[in-house]
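Notes from the pairing session

We agreed to fold both candidates in a single pass and log them together. This is the raw record for the first candidate, unedited. Please don't reformat it; downstream parsing expects exactly this layout.

Candidate A
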Amino acid sequence: MNYRREIDGLRSVAVIPVVLFHAGFQLFSGGFIGVDIFFVISGYLITSIIIAERDRGVFSLLKFYERRARRILPVLFFVLLCCLPFAWVWMLPAQMASFARSIIAVCLFGSNFLFWHESGGYFAAASEEQPLLHTWSLAVEEQYYMLFPLFVMLMWRFGRHALIGAIAAVALASLLLAQYGSVNFTTANFYLPNTRAWELLAGSLCAFLLAGGRQYSSNILSLTGLAIIVFSIFAYDEATPFPSLYALVPVLGAVLVILFASAGTLTAQLLSTRPMVGVGLISYSLYLWHQPVFALARIRGLTEPSMALMSLLALACVGLAYLSWRFIETPFRKGSGVQLLPTPARMLGGGAITAALFIGIGLYGVSDNGLQFRLPPDALTALAEQEHHDPVMDTCLFDKGEASLPHPVRDCLTQHSTASRTILIGDSHAAALAGEALRSFDSNNVDLYVMTHSACVGFSGFYVSNPKYKLRCDPFFRGIEDYIQKSGMATVIMASRWSLYVDGAPFDNGEGGIESLKPTYVDLLDRLDEHATQGDPARKARVLKQYVADIQKYLDAGRNVVLVYPIPEAGWNVPERVAKSAMYGVKNLEFSTSYDRYRQRNGAVIAAFDAISHPNLFRVRPADFFCDSFLKDRCINSLSAERVFYFDDDHLSDSGADLVVPAILAAVEVINGRTAGPALVTR
């Protein structure tokens, strides 16, 4: 087939948005669609080669696989090799184990399956620290390379038209499955080859239309194709269901460019400029380098890297890409590498041996739970808070909207009790207090029962924006409220991440610590059809108003309420920050965040709570223990490796809960008439 400069230019249109998207440039919110353009290009080029060689009667499956191996493996293995020393020095054990598993998966052409099972999704914040996350698309292409030639050889015997019809039918079925999967199994839908096949097959159909050197020409259609690609780069974002019918836009754009951007068109002239072709030529190497460089930078830093640093790293990736293209890609495809491994058997055998060596390295990296022996004792001590959060959270933190439970659940009740007239309700912030609370109450012979649910403010009548929990909160807390009423509970302890559900935004501590959470907010269930947004001030006002009304409802019913005010959030993963600091030789492992930032985040909720007046209301203010206490104008996160107050970026560890629970216990004992209570427990 004839070389088309504009196809290399189209590669640059694909790779640049991907790099800038992963660097964190919000303007390129749909940059991930570059991968879809690559799929179309790959389908077109591979099928064109197969058709041309098949028509000349020289197609060889072994030679086909050799060419793919020469194209893909040498620079891929080099990038893996370069990652290893940085992983050894910088990665925490869990990161190392995950990285090691991804090395194995890459070498087995199955990293898309690994990331489907392991990750919280391609757009999850944790994915930004996966150096090999981007190899999921290589795995999809490799699976296509393995199967598609066999499919062509099988179907060609029925004639070219039958083959084209079969490809079109499979592509249509794959697209429909992708649309269905975008609603019903979103993570699998993103990674699996059966929902991506239609994009590659769209390129294959282009190859059949252009077979024999045919080329269509249209300024309007080719410019339209380029325009809709650019549109999707800037208009789409992580909330766009993908792949789905939305993916038709960039895929159709790539198809139109391939079909109609002949040499004389304006689109071809734009894409054939020297800079565009140059970036296109190094696009594979650039794609391979960018994610490891960005991920390792994020792993190394104690805070999120600045956009200035990420910009410099993006430029560095271009330099690395040129060098690997010049000295690894090109020689192995056309020069000395061909002489080094001159036959298909030697090339494929060399690739297999190298892959086996990397698999061995991966197996070693998984051992000892991620090679823990690399870390100093202080780092391991700090990480213990992260790895061993209180088991009560696994038992008494529900997440499926369980509306009917066999109350009381034995493991969520103080050990000495058979029943309790005091209950702790709320979300995971309440659950983080629960283990220490049950132990402390039990040791003081005070009854306590715990019932909490993930991502739910502790009242019925709300829905949450998180799709997983959207309609689970209401039935669960209706069941709890029914139990409170029927059992005659005298005291209700309320703890939730109140301000998150009002504001909706992940916590940003203003010092580089930005919580790894998607926007999560609540609204009243009877407003479900109104689709209120995160920033809607009317939504925020009515949520706050309903908080007060629900608290007042308990008080008016004659119950005592112990209201736990907002718990300070950290913004950064505290055990990891302490552990990394210890790894880098930092001696002072005391970390904190701004008290002013706490006030800004929680001011509206605190004001609403302060306005409630009732003799049966007892207030516990965690900020009194964390903020302006250990350090002036600061909220403490940790004092040392042994005293880490959070097990992630916002949930209290047992050490943190130990600062708050005594005040909760004191309030309950005041209610029970046992003591006068400390000054910090206020009405």
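Candidate B (folded immediately after A)
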Amino acid sequence: MSLKELNDVSYFKLNNEINRPVDGQIPLHKDKEALKAFFEENVEPNTMTFPSVEEKINYLIAQDYLEEAFIQKYSMAFISSLFDYLKAQKFTFKSFMAAYKFYSQYALKNNEGTLYLESFEDRVAFNALYFADGDEKLAMKLADEMIHQRYQPATPSFLNAGRKRRGELVSCFLLQVTDDMNSIGRSINSALQLSRIGGGVGISLSNLREAGAPIKGYEGAASGVVPVMKLFEDSFSYSNQLGQRQGAGVVYLDVFHPDIEMFLSTKKENADEKIRVKTLSLGLTIPDKFYELARNNEEMYLFSPYSVEREYGVPFSYIDITQKYDELVANPNIRKTKILARDLENEISKLQQESGYPYIINIDEANRQNPIDGKIIMSNLCSEILQVQTPSVINDRQEYEVLGTDISCNLGSTNIPNLMSSPDFGESVRAMTRALTYITDSSDIDVVPSIQNGNSLNHTIGLGAMGLHTFFAKNQMSYGSPESIEFTDVYFSLLNYWTLVESNQIAKERKVSFNNFENSAYADGTYFDRYINQPVVPHSEKIKDIFNGIFIPAAEDWSALRDNIQADGLYHQNRLAVAPNGSISYINDTSASIHPITRLIEERQEKKIGKIYYPAPNLSNETLPYYTSAYDMDMRQVIDVYAAAQKHVDQGMSLTLFMRSEIPEGLYEWKTETSKQTTRDLTILRHYAFNQGIKSIYYVRTFTEDEEEIGSNQCESCVI
């Protein structure tokens, strides 16, 4: 019975029995039975076997399943020894969902889709060999990290590494549009190409002149940002990898742009079809000044990008609105309109209730924490990529007169519970940094020169984390408790330290630093002041015990690292970013990203299959009290945990707010008149996040009384 004819199987039924309590207990053993049945009924009878590793690899190359070039960088004796090592680790999936997700979405199948051609160990081996680029020691180290699930490459990387017929290894892209037809046209072409390649695309429209702005002296001629949004939406719908996936994009607009109200209206349920965008995501870049005006219940001015650029000679995104607000208001050459800040704030909250959008980028906070010379103006489809950009100038022949820098995202994730058990935390992180470096070095998106230019100059990567709630539960810590925040603080300071160490080592080996390193806070040493003056170390006995045996850098270690970086530079402009997690977290048998779980038994609708149930990782009588659902949690606790990590993450984090339409009694002290979620609740939480130094907020997900989720994650690109 081939994979195309699997009908009479027992594993779905066994898995579904998890959701039926027996004597008040969750029958977790049913998931183990489902896992066993899945291998017996599905995997084992439908996996092609080979007498030896060499014969397997030769077959996969001959049949155009596997690239030959990366295999030829190693001897077959070494490759066989690596496969033998992986087999000796006796890897097993811990849940039915983990195995099902791997074999349905990641395992290589034959052209007919009737047989599996690789196991988890095989996929790990090909990833390790591919990313090590001929370095046997690194290949063995990466294999060790991945088979013990301490490191997980992003979905595009893990899925495609080594395959002959594959998509790109990168996760997503960021483009900015400047205020001219050439840039709009070129950006639409770029979006088509990037969506074809695979991966979500973020686009900044803040520089575009508003509706009614003049065009070559004609008053009231411009159509504004909404028609351009519709063009991008149609582009993503068309360029969908032959129907295999929906093209995905997000458009960002500055909250002081005159089209802001119409921009938000495009996502309203009752929006006119002429302006409504159905599949495009929305994001706002919000300067500090907006929070001040809203807090003081003042009017706010919206400024014409067209007149701002004419007056200052730079695109609108590169103006510091907070700093120049009063100057812009007083300048008669700047076209402007007035609205009430709180009215706009209320519209933002209403839309977040209705759809989960818009994403929020606290743009001044992102730039305040940014150690790189230049300006961050936008983010990506999952709101965790925050890097400086420079605009391009395109002539009438659609050629680049000035080639700016746009962004591609190369992502991977640490598995917190497993990395904390690593024989050498630092060496693990350094190996992960090397793997991600190979992806950025080998990426060559020549169809979009601004993306190619940004990648070749800046060598950016984004190492993140998953499994934080699982780690808390295993160690009997409540999410958001002081000790959980302390752990998060120390853990992410270690990720920061070791990625800096390895980036410095690579720069020293290659005698290359990222572009404009000399004007960064790394080069002048100021970045390290806070670590030297107040090193991050465990204080409570519990966290001291957890980190026992793991090297914690002291002031002199940070000082030595500063000196090394000032002497030899850094290879990567950016190193850390915490993405959301999708199927990859299931395969890792851990909680997604660093946010709390949503249910003890998660229910997943799997296309033609039906419902699959996934118990919280390591769920037991001991961990049960520490697995509070995000929907039953004060979101300020989640924000506090993210804020502890954000101090050390040079980019951003996909922070999701989880709300109930009926808020549990006593959760928020201001809920005295109604238990229903209101716009005020979301406004208070956004301001709290801003005051805690949070750079970005991803979705607002609302769990309704009829158990529907509004604003659930639609992005499969960077959900590593």
